[in-house]
Backbone:
């Protein structure tokens, strides 16, 4: 099956610090990965699309300098929350598509999520 | 605009059948997904419909009518572990998943 690993699963940090979250596709290559944010009792909101070897595409209202995305290889994308503040506390989830499979190429497989708490 | 509607919450009894509806209006259509999400966890893939009709996979089935902008997820022989949020999501022309707000299903004994 398609497995996406996300690390860390839970992080607490002080206000003003930066936090890096990793998203890896373990058994497939993913030219495209996605980063979502989810607040309690709400659905997933797409933050940005991460493209291997090129700049990420950010959704309207998402600060690219605040949420740095790097997709340096076909199996790894990272999201860095810079100078985190309490309002950045949320559940961050990544997903990846299996680029090589034409039949299921549109299916996004999700990582386990990262719960960020900024004090 | 883009809009995906599904009921906020539903309750059903263990062993019964429940149908969760989803209607959508999006900029382009490239498939509809259903995901299951337990509290505090990431969504897990349940089904994918790109053509009209019914897709069956074990206890779960998903139906799509593109002309009506309508889908449903059917869960049979409900189990307590099926209590979760069920997310309807449409893949639009840009290749992005647009999620509905999710339906919180509670299965009672």
Residues:
């Amino acid at each position: 099956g398609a497995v996406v690993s996300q690390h860390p699963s839970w992080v607490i940090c002080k206000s003003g610090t930066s936090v890096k979250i990793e998203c890896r596709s373990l058994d497939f290559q993913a030219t495209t990965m996605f980063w979502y944010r989810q607040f309690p009792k709400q659905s997933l909101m797409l933050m940005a699309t991460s493209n291997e070897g090129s700049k990420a595409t950010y959704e309207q209202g998402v600060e690219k300098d605040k949420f740095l995305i790097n997709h340096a290889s076909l199996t790894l994308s990272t999201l860095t929350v810079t100078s985190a503040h309490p309002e950045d506390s949320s559940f961050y989830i990544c997903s990846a598509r299996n680029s090589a499979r034409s039949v299921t190429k549109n299916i996004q497989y999700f990582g386990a999520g990262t719960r960020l708490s900024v004090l | 605009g883009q809009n995906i509607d599904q009921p906020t919450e539903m309750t059903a009894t263990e062993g019964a059948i429940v149908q969760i509806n989803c209607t959508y209006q999006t900029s382009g259509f490239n498939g509809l997904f259903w995901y299951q999400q337990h509290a505090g966890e990431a969504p897990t893939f349940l089904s994918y419909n790109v053509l009209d009709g019914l897709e069956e996979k074990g206890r779960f089935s998903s139906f799509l009518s593109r002309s009506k902008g309508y889908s449903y997820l059917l869960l049979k022989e409900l189990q307590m572990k099926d209590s979760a949020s069920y997310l309807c999501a449409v893949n639009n022309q840009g290749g992005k998943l647009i999620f509905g707000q999710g339906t919180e299903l509670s299965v009672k004994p």
Observations:
- The mean pLDDT of chain A is 90.
